[in-house]
Please model this.
Amino acid sequence: MNYRKKFFVEPGSKVRLNDVDPSFTGKHESADEAREAIAKDCDRLAHLQYRLYAENRRSLLVVLQAPDAAGKDGTVRHVFGSLNPQGATAHAFKVPTAEEAAHDFLWRAHKVTPARGSIAIFNRSYYEDVLVTRVHDLVPKDAIPKRFDRIAEFEKNLQQAGTQILKFYLHISADEQLRRFQQRLEDPNRQWKISESDYSERPYWNDYRKAYEDALEHTSTERSPWYVIPANHKWFRNLAVARIVTETLDEMDLQFPAPTVDIEEMRAKFHAAEGEPAGKA
Ligand code: AMP
Ligand code: MG
Model:
């Protein structure tokens, strides 16, 4: 199945998240059965990162947005965990600091966009500024459409500098979120993840839905696509994200740069030096 086609948000199309099955797993039936496919994609991803780094011309920005407990952290760990840290960054966007809040909303994001040759993963992003800010009326209503325009310009600017952007909305059901919160409460290894906001945000579930639907509709483009990833099953979420990222990198046709030395000449030099002791006699 072509996940890039299936989960792509058509630019300008109405998004109805309630119509998307968060438990979808396609032809795959279980985590066990999909394990090999995921491992293969993750290996391929590591290889493609190597080419991206070597080429040193373009970069990749991956944006992860989702409700609480939908698996942003898990996606970073499972899908991007095999990347070479030299050439990859992950950045979690929290409530803006005083310094960040004193700047335009894109300032803190622009500083951590990927350098040439590298991959940046945004765990939350500048999209929070059209989501949480909207749900809690932190900005005037008419600021939101203007921010969609600013975002479009910002992403275009990055593209023109050689950055490929991929944006994933991890789609879980309200029931699955509750189940995961419950799991956090019961598991001593997960209790640290619980935050007051997990519970205080749940009454706003429908408002967030609406804010996401609008944001996806207004900011998905061919060059800077949004994908709605069914994420009730963690393994399927990992598979779909890994597949879309690797296929996109594949399509970028990353090239190793030409050597900076004359290989024949270097070979001759090495041959001539063969058998001679290293260092000065
Ligand atoms: P977490 O990802 O669970 O560590 O939580 C980060 C929190 O920061 C979430 O509640 C976000 O909604 C909040 N946050 C991130 N960006 C912004 C923003 N621009 N304005 C307000 N809150 C934000
Ligand atoms: Mg949280």
Notes: The longest strand covers residues 163-171.
